[in-house]
Amino acid sequence: MKKIAQELKLWKTFFWFSLVLILGIVGISRVTRAPASAAELEVVGLDANSATITDSEGRDVTHEAELSRYSHYTVAYHWSIADAQTITAGDTVNFELPDSVQAISDLKINLTDKDGTVVGTAEIKKGQGVGTITFSHALAQTIYGREGTLKFTVFGTNETQASNSDWLINKYGWLNQDATNEDGTPDELYWNIAINPNAEPLSQVVLTDTLGPDQTFIPDSLVAMIRVNGVNVEPAAVKVSTKGNQIFVDLGDINQEISIVYRTKITNLNLDAGNKWTNNTEINVTDREHHGTISSGSIAWGGTGTGTGYKGSAKLTKYDGKAQTQLAGAIYELQKNGVVIRQGLVTDVQGEIYVEGLDFGSYAFVETKAPDGYALHHEPVPFMITLENGAYSHVQITDRDYPLPVKPTTPVKPTTPAKPTTPAKPTVPTKPTTPTRPEIPNQVEPKVPVKPHVTKPVVGRPGPKKVSSAGKSTGKLPQAGAQADPKWPAVLGLLGIVTLFGEEFIRKVES
């Protein structure tokens, strides 16, 4: 019995333990918060009264009460969201169509910013009067200037058509709702040509249909029907041929209203902009030249949208506190409410740091490293991102560093001058040599002049007159036995010696 009691006690403990564990798990699962649902934002400009409507020729038809369902129009909006309103990815806003128009088909339009980033997607279903824009994370990071545009193609809602007497041929087109791509975008177009609504007799009727770009004719898709009182009753006999982008339809002679329908395949579809396909039909009738012969049709689909948003921004400029010149190379961190949110911000060659994408709040630049040669500025440089006059101003602030004091350099100890060397003992000058005695040139012994032979004059005969030193005749002849003047021979001899000596000296010098 004791053993059984112990086993029962053990099972009871296990039971209560399991029960507490299960209740704990259930309790945790019940108190776990469900994910926050997307919010519907307050927006301006997307209601029906804010829409504008233009026809295919660009005319404003916003205030016309009746717009034909056989014509296409463009509806446009300009929207905005209040500053400081928080946007989260997945938040939505609605847009409304005016009563005079309706969606052609299911539409999905991307709203993009200037860089092509999708900020939201607009969607509307065929036949609905209200669509939805769902915003992405792109605008979730903005705090002001949230605005954009939306425009797309619609049809009118009025069934009224022009009376039959007003036209001979009419062209009309629409999207083939039964032929779409996997993403729901259109793949084919329908074109309708209505002829002779008053059932008048016409001869040799030939239609030339010219397709516009971005579409091709689908062979064997053309059907011609005879209509009576607006109802198709039987096929009409026609001959069809094609050449390039032209379709030729030969009806021959007719006296009934004829309706022709065929399909084209879309070859180019722009999902980021509106699309428009055109078609012209010319009718040649030999006996009705006074009627109009050309009719044009067009089909439009899609739309475009834009969206922008901004955050706060700030620019810091760093200066030399003494020279007032910009400083490059200062390193900062950015703090918000005392918490570092960005690091490694370096001033450029203009001494500037630019930051953007800032939310509301209090911020400060804090210098972490000064440029080389400057003292670090420890004080934070505060600024605020706030709303001013309906927009966020670009915050511009300045900061200054001062050069470090220059530490004087220790003067260099002068070196001990070198001990002068003992001057060398002067050398004894050599005794000058006795100059050689100049060689005396050979002297030539002067020749004694020959004593002239004196002829004794003849006595009694007159002789020449004696000439005086003045050049005048003395009238006396030299006396017999008289001696010549001894000075002249000596002078002549000396001159001869000097001449010989000079010639010898010159020869020695030249040699």
Describe this structure in words.
By secondary structure, this protein is mainly beta. Among the domains are: 43-156, Immunoglobulin-like, CATH 2.60.40.1280; 164-299, Sandwich (Immunoglobulin-like), CATH 2.60.40.740; 312-401, Immunoglobulins (Immunoglobulin-like, Sandwich), CATH 2.60.40. Helices cover 11% and strands 38% of the residues. It contains 3 helices and 28 strands. The strands form 5 sheets. Strands 1, 2, 3, 4, 5, 6, 7, 8, 9 and 21 form a 10-stranded mixed sheet that branches. Strands 10, 11, 13, 14, 15 and 18 form a 6-stranded antiparallel sheet that branches. A hairpin with a 2-residue loop joins β23 (331-336) and β24 (339-346). The longest helix is centred in the first third of the chain and has 30 residues, at 2-31. It is elongated and about 185 Å long.
Write the layout of secondary structure elements.
Elements: H1 2-31, E1 43-44, E2 52-54, E3 72-81, E4 92-96, E5 101-103, E6 107-112, E7 118-124, E8 130-135, H2 137-140, E9 144-156, E10 169-175, E11 188-195, E12 202-211, E13 215-217, E14 223-228, E15 231-235, E16 239-243, E17 246-254, E18 257-266, E19 275-284, E20 294-301, E21 303-310, E22 312-320, E23 331-336, E24 339-346, E25 352-358, E26 361-369, E27 381-385, E28 395-401, H3 487-510
Parallel strand pairs: 6-21, 22-28
Antiparallel strand pairs: 1-3, 2-3, 3-9, 4-8, 5-9, 6-7, 7-8, 9-21, 10-11, 11-18, 12-17, 12-19, 13-18, 14-15, 14-18, 16-17, 19-20, 22-25, 23-24, 23-26, 26-27
